[in-house]
Amino acid sequence: MIKSVTVINYLGESLKLVLSNPAETGIKITDISGLGPPKATINTSKVSTVDGVIFNSATVAGRNIVFSTELLDLPTVEEVRIKTYKYFPIKRQVTLIFETETRLAAITGFVESNAPALFAEDPTTQISVVCEDAYFYDAHEGDDGIVRTDFYSTLPNFEFPFSNESLTDNMIEFGIIERKLDREILYPGETEVGMTITIEADGAVGDVVIYNPDSNDAMRLSSTKIRTMTGSGISAGDVITITTMRGNKKVTLFRNGRTTNIRNALDRTSVWLQLVKGLNRLAYSASSGIPNLQISIESKILYEGL
Questions:
Q1: What's the pTM value of the predicted model, to 2 decimals?
Q2: Cys-Cys crosslink for 227: which of 193, 201, 233, 295, Cβ 3.0 to 4.6 Å?
């Protein structure tokens, strides 16, 4: 059951429509279409010598969410109607956040139309929002809305009483960084999703490979190509970010306060890694300098529908 819908317009202004309390805003939502799983387009081909068809590919188009509403006389119907123009401006981008009994899910789209029935006895309007991305994103704040996995952890190593027997060398360890070369990631979403892989270097590192041991899909990053593009290979202080989300695939290097596109440093056989529903395994290796690497992975949680 949907409890509320929050709309955020392109200016950052928000309006929360509580379905059980339309008197709060004057907008009574009577129906919302387009909230279930989107329709997939299945591409097939016919072979003359074989019965049936052969599957080629499958794609999911965007989503069209349509609100049917009644406009209450609070304080006047005209003021309420103008309020819908403010929060659902045509051609503009809006963010919709749906709260249900179990989910808080967001989606972004463009307002296609806002069609009020001006001469109806019971004033209504129908608002259409076209979404480029067919999937809903978990809208919980902080760690509740993302999946984060670190391939390292810090073990506490500082104890009392303590002493430093050297006046020139640092003998006290406050913590020990423990690195893991592979991790299991539990992804609770309903459709595969890309991720943001952050690679931090504490020293010189050779070629880096991040891979799925079960499928053998891998992303191979050449330190030699990075040297050709930037003047030096992977070195201390470098932060490499790999983004594998649909429509936003990129590889960047942050060094000395400057961000550089290093997508061409990926090997041609590389596969943009994705997380699938359930348990995933990811691992990494390097041709040299493995102890100098710290790797973390973040991904959003996607839902097929409400």
A1: 0.79
A2: 233
Q: How far apart (Å, rounded) are the C-alpha atoms in residues 295 and 62? A: 33
Each residue's pLDDT tens digit, 31-85: 999 999 888 888 888 887 778 888 888 888 889 999 999 999 988 999 999 999 9
Helix, strand and coil content of the chain, in percent to the nearest 5, comes to: 10, 50, 40
Q: Tell me the two tokens of residue 303.
A: 């839902």
Q: Is 2.60.120 the CATH classification of the domain at 145-303?
A: yes
Domain boundaries, the chain: 2-138, 145-303
pLDDT band, residue 122 (cuts 50/70/90): confident
Residue 255, helix vs strand vs coil: strand
Q: Are 1 and 100 in contact (CB under 8 A)?
A: yes
> How far apart are the C-alpha atoms of 300 and 157, rounded to whole Å?
34
- Cα–Cα distance, 22 to 119 (Å, whole number): 22
pLDDT at 205: 92
